[in-house]
TrEMBL record:
This is Glutamyl-Q tRNA(Asp) synthetase. The keyword ATP-binding applies. SUPFAM superfamilies: Nucleotidylyl transferase (SSF52374). It comes from Stenotrophomonas capsici. Belongs to the class-I aminoacyl-tRNA synthetase family. GluQ subfamily. Gene3D superfamilies: HUPs. Pfam families: tRNA-synt_1c.
Amino acid sequence: MSSIPYRGRFAPSPTGPLHLGSLLAAFGSWLLARHAGGEWRVRIEDVDPPREVAGAADAQLATLAAFGLHADGPIQYQSRRHRLYQAALDRLLAEGKAFACHCSRSDLAGQQGIHRHCAAHQLRPHPAVRLRVADGSRVMFQDGLQGSFTQQVDREVGDFVLLRADGCWAYQLAVVVDDAEQGITDVVRGLDLIDSTPRQILLQRALGVATPRYLHLPLLLDASGHKLSKSLAARPVDAADPLPTLRWLWSALGQADAALDAAGSVGELLQHAAAGFNPALLQKASFIVPESPPG
Ligand code: GLU
């Protein structure tokens, strides 16, 4: 058991520069950690080489530093933690909670892509490994912002992948092993990941580790209602001029603009933000629609 009452984290995948949406998750998780008097960690989720962009992890860390968001404790890299994922997988396999699966996408097409039983037409040299999800696996959790969230994992998701057929660790396994091993008590991230949370809770139960508290922040939409990643505002944030962006994110998080008026530097702004942050002002709505991009 950790003696730290609150340990949050920001866990970007190095697939490109940080955009406003990811910085909102970083700043939001930092604010909630500071408000709780807790720690804030950073973990680079680089277990998916096909999606990785060379240099992106360093660029993301440089951007976080320019915005004054410094991790408490060393940065963790998932690419250096294979041993932990392998040990978890071996245990699940040995206990019959996971199984090798030779199904291809087309084998699963007849089941709407949801795996309930193997329908492989041919054996693969390197099968995927899936978690066995029992019939009737209904997971409910209380999100810190969105309220109660329920998913019928067997019917809506099915047996899910832990190790992909291409040999890469699945996000679900790596994130659960790491959150547990790093003693993360509070996961704060974007609402696009809320669908994954019931899978992560099932996996935590299968591994016998604690379930952290979860809070999913609203996603940013542009004025035309598109997800930010498809809009102009998905451009990388301007690390050379962090103050307007931090003020914009602060207001997107529902906080009172005036609290940051006096701040003339990043350090000052973050000090005021940590002191003035009020979680009760976070919008529960699914989306934040900013009036105009920062700058
Ligand atoms: N690495 C994931 C992403 O960038 C986030 C993981 C998480 O916060 O659980 O989308």
